[in-house]
Amino acid sequence: MKKIGIEASDEIIVRSVLAGNIADFEQIVKRYRDRVYSIGYRFFYNKNEAEDFTQDLFVRVLEKLSTFRFEAPFKYWLVRITYNYGINRKKKLFSEPDIIEFEMPDISLSLEKKPIRDEIVSLLNSSMQKLPKNYRICIDLYFYWNLPYEQIKEITGIPVNTIKSNVFRAKSILRDALRGTIAEEYYEM
């Protein structure tokens, strides 16, 4: 059988896997591995635990793939499973998630800009840790996963207006926390 290429949509890949071409699932893993790992890291703050989470999650996704109904984009279904699996796994290990760390994409920077970037990431992480948990969850799904409010509602069970309010308040808190820092100077907030 011909293997599906990287340009195929998620839904085409899922249909192929469901038709018995399990090797095509590798495309899904490649496409979403970094994002799933990042969520795992945000739940457990440990590289090894995040790697285990990522592996276990993709095994779980493959096992539950037949429950995907093609009513919404696959990405939303995957985020919901990832989020719920993270919460359930975290509950088994600890009481509740408390820190979400922001990671900026690894882009090559000149030697003089790297310390500035690192300082901004550190300031942002410190500020994000101080946000209430419900704000962190909403802002993470909204900005990092680029999910619309309706999808965040389906994943978290939080009403849309509350999500909008949480994102707005979190942005205001972060802006205030970063005011007067190197981040403000660098990005002219």
CATH class division of the largest domain:
Mainly Alpha
Kindly identify the CATH topology of the largest domain: Rna Polymerase Sigma Factor, Chain: A
The main sheet comes to:
none
Uncertain segments: 96-101
The best one-word shape is: globular
Please compute the radius of gyration using only Cα atoms. Answer: 18 Å
Helix content range: 55-70%
Give the helix tally: 9
* Through-space gap between termini: 53 Å
Q: What is the CATH superfamily classification of the largest domain?
A: RNA polymerase sigma factor, region 2, helix turn helix motif
Secondary structure category:
mainly alpha
**What fraction of the residues are assigned to beta strands by DSSP?**
under 5%
DSSP strand count: 0
Mean pLDDT across all residues, rounded? 81
SSE string: HHHHHHHHH
Chain-wise SSE layout:
Layout: H1 10-18, H2 25-44, H3 47-64, H4 74-93, H5 114-129, H6 133-144, H7 149-156, H8 160-178, H9 182-187
Helix pairs in contact: 2-3, 2-4, 4-7, 5-8, 6-8
Overview of this structure, please?
This protein has helices at 10-18, 25-44, 47-64, 74-93, 114-129, 133-144, 149-156, 160-178, 182-187. It is mainly alpha-helical. The chain folds into 2 domains: 1-97, RNA polymerase sigma factor, region 2, helix turn helix motif (Rna Polymerase Sigma Factor, Chain: A); 99-189, Arc Repressor Mutant, subunit A (Orthogonal Bundle). Helix 2 (25-44) crosses helix 3 (47-64). The chain is globular, with a radius of gyration of 18 Å. Residues 96-101 have low confidence and may be disordered.
